[in-house]
Amino acid sequence: MFYPSIHIKNTEVASLQPLCIGICFPGTLPRHLLQGIIPIHISVSIAEEYKSFTTPVVEALALDGYPYSKCSSTLGDVSGQLSLGGHKISYDNIDIPIPFLPLPSNFSPVDSYHWLQLSQQIQRWLVFILAESQHWKWGCDVFWLAFVGACPDFPNGQWPRWDTRIPLKGQFIKQWLNAGTLGVDQSRESSLEQIWVEFCAHAILFHPDPLVSVN
What we know:
Radius of gyration: 21 Å
Number of strands: 2
Number of helices: 5
Helix content: 25-40%
């Protein structure tokens, strides 16, 4: 179920803003099954009491991949294509999926390898997010939390390269670089536990549901 933003036009009427919804298809198909086009059935409806005023219209755009996959298409491409059709989209109204949340049930906040995997997932997603959207600043913050969770000695020691499209900015990473660590007397495990506390506080802003999957 999706909830489009409401634009108030005047004291008497309002309109629903367009939603940009991505549909991806994980996995691969055997080539011998490909007999031309593959139909996809999508059904969209609105509550009964609104049907006399508006009807949802679905516009299909063939994209070379999905915003957080290894492809060239971005949400900017999507919004640009919809704009050509006469739809002006506010970046803050785009319903952007967050594929790395919830975390897997076996995620351990004191395991830097788990943080490394998470930081890589966030990075693949973040570089395709519109910098003008609310998700961008939030995504940068959670990326640096995960990155430092993977490399608690950062900027010292060894650490993997990150995509340069992600700026070294944000309250957390700024404090971390100024202090060197969250506490010079803290053990590695204590530092990771503190990072986890801050990650949870940031994540809930865009993911109010349980942060870790429950089997």
